[in-house]
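From the pipeline queue, job 12 of 40. The input is one protein chain; the requested action is below.

Action: predict structure.
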Amino acid sequence: MTDTTIDLSVLESRSGRSGFAENVNPELYRLLSALDLDREYVRGDGTVLFDSSGRRYLDFAGAYGALPFGHGPTPIWQAINDVRCSGEAIFVQPSVLTAAGELADRLGRIAPDGLTRTTFVNSGAEATEVALKLARAHTGRLGVLTTGNSFHGKTLGALSATGNIKYQSGFGAPVAGFDHIAFGDAGALDAALTAAPGHYAVFLVEPIQGEGGVVCPPDGYLRQVRDICDRHGVLLAFDEVQTGLGRTGRMFAAEHEGVVPDILTVAKALGGGIVPVGAVLCAPTLVDESFALRHTSTFAGNALAARVGIAVIDELTRDDCAVVTNAAVLGRQLTKDLGALAEKYPSVVTDVRGRGLLLGIELTADVNFVGRQSLLGSIAEQHNLTAVICSYLLNVEGIRVAPTLFGTRVIRIEPPLTVSAAQCARLVAALDRALGYAAVGDLDGLFGHLLGRPTVSTPPSLIALRPGRTPDIAVRATDRRFAFIAHPLDLGFFAAFDPALDVFDHSERQDLLRRFAASTSELDPASFVIGSGRVVGGGDATAHGDLIGLPYTSEQLLHLPTEQALRVVGGAVELAISRGATVIGLGGYSSVITGNGLGLGATSRPITTGNTFTAAASLRAVRRVCRERGIDVAQARVTILGAAGAIGRTIGKQLAGEVGSIALVGRQGESSVIAPKLWAAAQEMVASATGGSGSGDLAGAALEVHDDLDDLIRSGHIEFFTDPVAAVKDSLIVIAATSAPHALIDPTDLMDGAIVCDVAQPPNIGRDVRGERPDVTVFDGGIVRVPSGSDFGLTYGLAPGLTYACMAETMLIALSGEFDLRSIGTTLDEDSVERLGELADVHGFALAEATRWREGSQ
């Protein structure tokens, strides 16, 4: 008989995972799963969590401070069980709430002097709402003043008080009456209150900003704001939702400076890690009948929550507040140990701060912290190094930490107050390894677990692995600014971009790329700064530029849905603008997927595809090669792959008057008819051939038949193809300019002695052509040499001193300030082609094709 026993716990786990991923928050699930942070915890015990496989994890994230005694503390469960056994009624509003009264009395005894009136709530955000209502009702004023980078909750009033526009946008916050000043600046508070006498009801502030990045104010700040508020007749409210009840080594953070606020909010820890409970404490004189009878809540102050709160206070005050003392002692030791790590890894850790067991480790945002042009530097610059470290610690070391919400460069250290010294030492040792991997740029050490090979070992020494750090290229006041958007052409590109990626094979690189793309959101776009550099042109002109990367290969970009593609590139454009770019170039397929920039619509800074100068540089290269080989182009046949595109069409129009015939390759139209765009391109080329001083056979034939395209097709001067191989076999000159993400032409496809200008990226001409066909001249038409004295080595795998012509166009526009030269759409201005060529000479951009003609040339 077959055993059909089913493990219900496994089924429930799978159901829970799919239910969360599909029905609760699929967006968050996507972000978590991208870095293997989507762990399902089936049990918690104190500071330890267990997943479904039985693996243990130390929890140093601590539910944002809501776990004063860890997971499932016995005294709190006992309080809950006592309620169940006693039969005490839990929800009896409106009535005399006996348990709530007892909890209020206990809170009043441990709170700063005089804060004996309590209003119960269910969360920290609700506590903020009550504080605001209390202040407005008591003063008769509506103005609320808070600080920038603060966090007070996500209900509408609390969100209005929160000082971060990123989380307010789209929700109608802040509502009228809310203003923000700098945190830690007592002078700013005095100035704001002086400027608006009688306007503000309350100044709401966190003694330590938690979600803002564990930011401590200067010593004496809280005493100063107390004095300033008193002088101006404004209430002072402390948000101690995260800092209260022992977290900072005192019962309340206000005690560190001996300050008593008018209003104090608590939550998180008051629920003992099991029940949501919050409270607002204030002086009795602040609450009148109007407020008390109109502010009610179905759940607030219920007996179960109150009994839990009482048990929490019992545990916090037991043995002369031993738990709180433990937080102070371990906090001092942890601060010392983390400070030692900061000194050991100064390139990675920029600050350690906090109090008690509310600590933050701030990581670098320097794109060059492991040297110029590195994946890890790009991740750091986008404030995502914290997420990488969190992923490593969870999956390799079995330690759970998390970044702060707003200060995304900061890893919070917020374990239960009952954490042990040994557990803290284990965290420090694990962080030592993680930061060591980051400091030397060891991607296998940091990312190996994502690819199925986690390693716990001592990272190589900094001296052994890490090269001398290249100094940053700082922006000068005289620099003009530009940015260029690019992406890896294929998976092989990574080794050229960052040698540290050599340890990964193509499938692993593909997996990493997929994860990086999936770990982004509309709030954090999928683009990142790869590096920066300076270009030195003629006449003392200089331009500083950022290279902004997209985590997609050419083929992946082509397959993105249109809406997503535009959002990805649009996010990169906004990132460039935020960094000061006055012109932004679209490189590679960022141009193709946006319809040569047209799909992005109006932008506050000009955008260019680089197609005009790419065409100009390619034309110069073709003409030079033909001169050096003594080729009579007047009778030569030219094939243009991608003839309907902006670059192919422009090159064809310029060459049409010089050559003998042209073969145009494009997509097939409906019912095998020539595609309209390809036909229109041919008409433009014929008109161009007869409109100038053309001396080629095509120009002569066009004049004889009065530009009749049908006659030129019959005579063989114009041919149309959909098959690239058939088109190139009899052509002496080949221009390759398609958007195909792969090679189209092999060594055997080309005629003897052919000249091939490959403008496409990725190349349309197989790289083996150079080795197998020494008779063929193959060069990259879209490659140019930057001016001497420039320091812009961030050129996506090219040899030093070289760059793509599309990027060079962006540089030229920035250097010259001639923004009308930008390339948008498929129709390029012929005068601009000539003008950009002139500017290239003025600013010292030279053709680089002479170094690329033969296999082995780099």
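Job complete. The longest strand covers residues 528-536.
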